[in-house]
């Protein structure tokens, strides 16, 4: 039994549970509807704080095991106080984390044991956009580059395939490279 | 002199410095080229950790005043250990923080004193996409809703205008609602 349990755990991924989850969603596609949420409060200047706790998924309201809180700000060179990373840096973190989680799951499902996954994500932005100084310049990143180092007990081409598959199934990669409709509502009292 | 200094500070935004920065970028548009970066390391399963410290901007390599570290993971219902928010929740945080920072800057520039800015951001996602179970379902958010509460010493329409202008100048709003090219490189040794 111990051998079976160990075989089920690969890269820290419980592949047995992963496949059970896949089967459960196949049987009841509605279970795959999730809603994630963040509450944000302005502190001062460019500094704000988000709390992440509740979400909806697999048919019911849920909570993370604890409440997560994150500050964001601008550095002094962008007229802030550097109380947290800039919002655009959190986007790079989200992309790296999403592709890495997918990569570990895919490797586990394919029977590949990973020994190391590192990535550096960089995003180029021209602030003439958000400063409103050049209408030809977009507000967001002009391009993003992700550099992965992946090591494990598989040939190089199989390790590269993990990144390709993770890219093709990454939620954050899709959000960044495609368009998501955003609705904004405002209350003033 | 004190009155002048106080007048320059509004909503925690040093508007004098803000306008000096705008003028500096107008005079030397190249100063507006920034590159932000995140280093991520896989920990185990769907758990990874990002470090945010160095960036390039205003003509030179820079660092945040300290190094910021963030964990991301999946909750148990998504076969993780809940060691951090999911990557897609960080995207919601980034959007709220970006629009809120912009809103405070724009209000300061327009002479409006804010007393409260709160937002709740929610994103709907159907995991049939990332699980590869339905090719018709996208991997990322199908839609995102931002609900702002904005209070300050201006009429409701002027407060609403702040959100509209922040939306039109937000880097993260642009990243999410438009397409950003992403290049991925892989090293396996």
From TrEMBL, chains A, B:
Origin species: Kribbella caucasensis
A Pfam family: OsmC
Native organism taxonomy: Bacteria, Bacillati, Actinomycetota, Actinomycetes, Propionibacteriales
Protein name per Swiss-Prot or TrEMBL: Putative OsmC-like protein
Domain of life, per lineage: Bacteria
């Amino acid at each position: 039994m111990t051998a079976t349990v160990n075989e089920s755990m690969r890269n820290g991924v419980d592949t047995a549970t992963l496949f059970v989850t896949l089967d459960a969603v196949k049987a009841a596609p509605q279970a795959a509807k999730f809603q994630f949420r963040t509450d944000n409060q302005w502190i001062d200047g460019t500094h704000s704080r988000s709390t992440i706790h509740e979400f909806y998924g697999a048919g019911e309201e849920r909570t993370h095991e604890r409440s997560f809180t994150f500050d964001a700000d601008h550095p002094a060179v962008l007229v802030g106080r550097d109380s947290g990373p800039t919002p655009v840096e959190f986007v790079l973190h989200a992309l790296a984390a999403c592709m890495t989680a997918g990569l570990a799951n895919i490797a586990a499902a394919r029977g590949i044991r990973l020994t190391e996954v590192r990535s550096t994500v960089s995003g180029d932005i021209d602030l003439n956009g958000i400063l409103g100084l050049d209408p030809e310049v977009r507000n967001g990143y002009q391009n993003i580059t992700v550099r992965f180092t992946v090591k494990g007990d598989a040939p190089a081409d199989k390790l590269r395939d993990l990144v390709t598959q993770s890219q093709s199934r990454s939620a954050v990669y899709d959000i960044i490279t495609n368009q998501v409709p955003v609705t904004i509502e405002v209350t003033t009292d």
